[in-house]
Give the backbone structure.
Amino acid sequence: MRTITEADVWTALAEVPDPEIPAVSVVDLGLVHRVAMEDGRLRVDLLPTFVGCPALELIRSSVAERLAGMAPVVDVEMTFAVPWTSDRITAEGRRKLRESGFAPPAPAATDAARPLFATIQVRPTAACPWCGSDDTTLENLFGPTLCRTVFWCNRCRQAFEQFKAV
Amino acid sequence: MTKGESAAPVNQFDPETRAALTELLLQMADDEFVIGYWDSEWTGIAPILEEDVAFASLAQDEIGHAQALYRLLAELEGGDPDAIAFGRPPEGYRHARLLDHPRTDWAFSVARRFLYDTADAARLDALAASAYAPLAGVVAKMRREETYHLLHMHAWLDRLATGGEEARARLVAAMERLWPDALCVLDGIEGDDLLVAAGVLAEPLADVRRRWLAGLAPELSRLGLPAPPAAVAAGACRGPSRGDDFRWLWEQFTMVRRSDPEAVW
């Protein structure tokens, strides 16, 4: 049997869909912090998208299930070692989100050096994923899941959701 | 090596510093936990559908933040995060008394959440570069999510302050009632100077509070809203005695655990 490499693990991870938007994988969303193979032990660290996201355990167990058997010991953990930010969503992930009717997030405005209160002036904007128009209106900063905001497209007159820029 | 992995071991702290860290974590976790439960009371009955969604989402964020902080406490002191969250009597909670009030009316909930969120933002700013890496990691995530809370509550503050007469009158009355309790959110902790010396906290909470109030002043003045009183009103900021409103909420959120302590959900 051929030895499993880290590249094989990444290929397998790219097949694990996000439970809420199955068109994108955990790799597309930038959820994989680290893959480490050492002495028959495979360790994968995932980054939580939102601290209170109820899908985190489902994501962790889906990844563990997909990787099962790739090493004698497979360990999949969530970590806050670095913050997941929406800037981690790949170009490919952004394309797939648009195709599924979601506007990808704008660049995140938060950084450690900037007082949080200063961010109250940052209004999210989004282009419509259906018709591409920039003539859109923010309907609600909060949406059906923690990670989404609701917009209205004034051109094609449809509601759409944008991933929050966090 | 990433930030989380370079964490100095917990036993780097002397007992006094560690006690102050435990108290800070418990205060933050309980603040987020209790405001999250109050917010969830709006689900289904908020003034507009969008706010049903928004307050449910805010509540879920806050309870998620509390859960992450209870986990840090469990790592630091041992124990089970759920037991810390749900297994204490009402007198054991350390949330600020700002969060003892029920949701009341919409203006009251907006005023309370605006005051709390901005105070919490100032506190999170002071922890963004914390030398206690596990906390810095959670705070980095919380700050990103809190950006949306601040945007939302600021928009509502502006809307009520500049809307009709009744909206404004209710908002002003709520802020006047809440200000003395709001100052309690950033009341000093015994040993917060030790946390500053250890690099856990960037500045003592008294300075965090000054920074918070200075940041708010221009906005309050622009909207003609009540300024903070000179001092916190008399009485303990964080319990142990609590009124009937918090006891009622405690009955609600501990109901499942009290009926079956082994329940998993």
In short: Chain B touches chain A through 45 residues (CB under 8 Å). Residues 1-8 of chain B have pLDDT under 50 and may be disordered.
